[in-house]
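User: Can you recover a sequence for this backbone? Please restate the input before giving your answer.

Assistant: Of course. Working from this structure:
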C-alpha cells in the first residue's frame, strides 16, 4: 500500500469538518480528532488554518481551546469581506491585463505595458526593473513555494529592495504566509528583513506573489503554481498597477505584524530565549515549530512555555500572548 502525500495546506472543506467536530466536543483534543478518522497531517493542517483565523488555540500538545463562535466568526467574516473588497478592486484591471497580454501581435500600447513572463529568470529581472525605480512605496506579497522558501532563508536581503539615495524615505512592506514559520531559520530571516527597515506581516494564505511599486509598476509571480514561472506578468499599465497596489495594501492591513522578541528590561525575569519563545507563541507557532526555529528540543520549549505562563500569571497559552501584549512585551 503506497503512502498518501501529506497535504501542504488544508482546503476549506477539511478545516470546516474539523471545526464542526471541535464545536461538538465538550473537551476538544487532537487525540479525539484522530479517533474520528482524521490523519495527523490533516489535523495539523486544519488546526494551523483555524488558529490563523482566530477560531481556536491549538498550541498545546493535545488539548485544544475553542473560542465561542458567536464572538470569533463575525470578526473572521468581517476580515474575509475586507479581503474580498480589496481583491474585487483589482478584478477589472486583471481582466484587462489578461486580454491585453493575449491580444494580437503585441503592437498596442496596452500590450506593451503588460508583458508575459516565461521563466523564473524573467520574473527575477522584472522584480529588479520594477524595484529599482521605486520612489515612495514598495509592497511585496510572498506566496509559499520551495523557491521562495529558499530565497527567504538564503537571500532575505533581496525580498524588498533597499532605498536608493533618491528614495531615502521609501516605505517598504512585506506579507508572508504564516506557514513560512514551518521552515527552519525562517523566523530569524524575517526578523532580519524587519531589522532592515521592512514592515513584516503574516497572513494565513496568499493566492499569488506580487510586487507593487509606486502605483506605477507591478510584477505578478505565479511560480508557486508553475515552477518554471510561465504565466507570470510584468505590469506597467498605471491603472492596473494602481489597482494591484490597492489590493496589496488591503491585504497588508489585514495581516498580523511579525511579533517582536522582547529584550532587556522588558523581559523582567524572563531570559532572552524566553522572549523568542514568546514572540513565536504570539505568531501562532506550535511547540514543534518553535523548537525548529530556535534549534532546541520540544521538551525545552514546553518547559520554557510553562515558565513564561507562570511569570505572566496566565493559565493558557492564548492568555499568555494577550497578557504579553497588554504589558508591552510584544
Amino acid at each position: 500500500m503506497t503512502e498518501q502525500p501529506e497535504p501542504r495546506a488544508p482546503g476549506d472543506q477539511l478545516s470546516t469538518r474539523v471545526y464542526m467536530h471541535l464545536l461538538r466536543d465538550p473537551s476538544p483534543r487532537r487525540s479525539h480528532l484522530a479517533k474520528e478518522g482524521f490523519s495527523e497531517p490533516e489535523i495539523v493542517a486544519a488546526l494551523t488554518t483555524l488558529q490563523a483565523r482566530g477560531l481556536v488555540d491549538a498550541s498545546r500538545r493535545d488539548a485544544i481551546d475553542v473560542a465561542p463562535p458567536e464572538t470569533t466568526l463575525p470578526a473572521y467574516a468581517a476580515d474575509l469581506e475586507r479581503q474580498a473588497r480589496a481583491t474585487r478592486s483589482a478584478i477589472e484591471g486583471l481582466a484587462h491585463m489578461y486580454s491585453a497580454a493575449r491580444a494580437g501581435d503585441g503592437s498596442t500600447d496596452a500590450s506593451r505595458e503588460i508583458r508575459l513572463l516565461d521563466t523564473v529568470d524573467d520574473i527575477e529581472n522584472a522584480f529588479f526593473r520594477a524595484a529599482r525605480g521605486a520612489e515612495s512605496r514598495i509592497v511585496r506579497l510572498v506566496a509559499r513555494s520551495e523557491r521562495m522558501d529558499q530565497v527567504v532563508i538564503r537571500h532575505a536581503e533581496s525580498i524588498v529592495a533597499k532605498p536608493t539615495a533618491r528614495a531615502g524615505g521609501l516605505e517598504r512592506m512585506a506579507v508572508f504566509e504564516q506557514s513560512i514559520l514551518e521552515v527552519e531559520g525562517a523566523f530569524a530571516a524575517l526578523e532580519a528583513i524587519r531589522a532592515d527597515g521592512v514592515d513584516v506581516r503574516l497572513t494565513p494564505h496568499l493566492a499569488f506573489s506580487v510586487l507593487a511599486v509606486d502605483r506605477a509598476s507591478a510584477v505578478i509571480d505565479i511560480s508557486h503554481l508553475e515552477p518554471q514561472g510561465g504565466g507570470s506578468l510584468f505590469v506597467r499599465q498605471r491603472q492596473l498597477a494602481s489597482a494591484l497596489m490597492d489590493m496589496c495594501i488591503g491585504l497588508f492591513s489585514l495581516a498580523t505584524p511579525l511579533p517582536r522578541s522582547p529584550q532587556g528590561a522588558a523581559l523582567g525575569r524572563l531570559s532572552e530565549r524566553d522572549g523568542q519563545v514568546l514572540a513565536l507563541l504570539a505568531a501562532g507557532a506550535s511547540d514543534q515549530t518553535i523548537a525548529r526555529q530556535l534549534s532546541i528540543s520540544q521538551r525545552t520549549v514546553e518547559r520554557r512555555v510553562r515558565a513564561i505562563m507562570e511569570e505572566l500569571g496566565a493559565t493558557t497559552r492564548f492568555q499568555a500572548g494577550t497578557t504579553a501584549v497588554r504589558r508591552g512585551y510584544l
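That completes the design. The chain has 14 helices and ten strands.
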